[in-house]
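> @MW can you paste both from yesterday?
MW: sure, first one:
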Amino acid sequence: MADARPIVAITMGDPAGNGPEITVKALTDPSLYDRCRPLVVGDAKMIEQATGFVQHPEVRVRAVSRVEEARFEAGTIDVYHLDLIEDASAFKLGEVSVEGGNAAFQSVKKTIELALAGEVDATVTNALNKEAMNLALAPQGLHFDGHTEIYATYTHTKKYAMMLAHHDFRVVHVSTHCSLREACARVKTPRVLEVIRLGWQACRDLGIENPKVAVAGLNPHAGENGLFGTEEIDEIIPAIQLAQAEGIDAVGPCPPDTVFSQLHGGWYDIVVCMYHDQGHIPTKLLGFVYDREEKGWKAVEGVNVTLGLPIIRTSVDHGTGFDLVGKGTSNELSLVNAIDYALRMAAGRQSKK
């Protein structure tokens, strides 16, 4: 009988960071193997090292060179071994390095290849360090702002967007990694309409039958009818009207200082944001919980999803944790959430087939 559990490829992230540790922590939960077949892509030596950091020496790390070799059994972590780190014992943790940046990039590239070939059903990424990666790529004349751009390039995707989610709190961005001045210039009707469509479809993929999409304004009070800027009148409202004509339940432009409270209250299924921080700040305010008394992070939750791709990609919504590496204290909740989001999207796509 065929195994119905989706195969999920998980990149190890930058090996100098806490990606290997939170991966081991997440995969020590036997119930995860009831939901999916996880396959780590990276260097088995670094995952083996991480089992000691998180005090799970009983976990077996098994290197494989093909997906078919993986056993997907609780208690064993299957690693698609790329042999990226020459000497794990000598590799410097918590530091930017060409070796670490290359390892992170090669892990992502191989994961994309596996998904495009249909060997895995979804992909989940741990954090990489952009400086380290681009130091490694510079001799090749390559540069990427982050995971989103890597996925878009290697899947030949032109229309894509970043969605952040904290459970049912979802935001999707018109622009992300650019200056605020450039972000304002990118608020144009075709792009706003494109992101409305992508956000609406993502909610459909998650099983929401008739998603309600709120579109945030760019300016204070959504421009106040042109008093504080005309981008809403000139660019955003026409995009909303075009989306509505397609049957999308889109509303706005909504004042940015209130729309996220409404989203949190269940008024909408997703909010289209005009720039990076407009969407990231409220999402991380909910997902990143710092305990003042304990002086530590009580929760680091959130999922980053790239929309518009031919394959499924979700990610943790935090950095590489260079300051935490080796301590075994890093929180794996964001990775678990990313895996579960990937599974929901895989199920949605499967049901459509």
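MW: second:
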Amino acid sequence: MDLEVRHLRVICSIAEAGSLTRAAASLGMTQPGLSAQLRRIEIMLGGAIFDRGQAGAVPTTFGELVLTRARAILPGIDGMLADTARAARCRTTPDRVRLGSVGAPVLADLIVAVRELTPRSEVTVRCQYSPSPLLDDLAAGRLEGAVLGDNPGQELSPRDEVVLRPLATEPVFALLPSAHPLAEQEEVSLNQLIEEDWAVPHPDTDRTREYWASVFALADRQPKTPFEAEGRQLIELVRAGLAVSLCQATFIAVPGVAVRPLAGNPIWYRHVLAWRRDGPLAAHGDEIFRRVGNGYQATCAATPAYARWRERHPRSVRLLD
């Protein structure tokens, strides 16, 4: 793991709050999630940054050194980001629309809708695994629109500058090697999967792994997770028969992998469209939402495992208005 600016912000937030519990609340994280992230940062830097006890989180001598450096660096970075955001806003015209996206089935529908509704625009796209940096970029004016996503209990934090329009909530499915015995079943349970080796997202990239862990905790067990991977690398680990994982219900299976519903539908994912309130997409928001929603419905119908699930659970399909 490489040191990132957000890690410096985490360290400073803990120091300012005086405890991990208060810092976690201010950062919109859980205390265990923040504690685990701090441990990874300390391992990376090579020493304990805080002594944690009844008095709260108190910087160590090593931690004071880290905090001194972080507090010297962050104002310059914040100033640069503010200056570049202003420059980007000045340079941006209705002829340019910058979109961002997490891994989602509706990105192409969003691009088509934006191109058709703003035909003179140049549309650019930047994809990222985590929604949080994309939401930050929307708020700062570095993007005009985005496809985001979140999980129950970990909903995206509202921003005054950004419109968040939930599009649909869908179940999360199991991702298996196609030769796996469980792939012969119509649906699989977490209790069956928990015995397997797992490929999981990196814990710092997104809160997805934290959400999965909270669901596993209900069964008082956590799976073995020897593989940390995302995107294509995760799929290849599953395809090779080395691991199992989870995926969006709208994931289109590729040769070598199988997608199966989870019994009881214990895990959910929400697709969210977002755009700047003062941006070029604001006037077209309702129409963009309608067109992307139609595209999502078409994707659902074209995804065999999800189409069968929707037939069996008609009242559980949550396409939002």
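> thanks! The chain has two domains: 5-86, 93-321.
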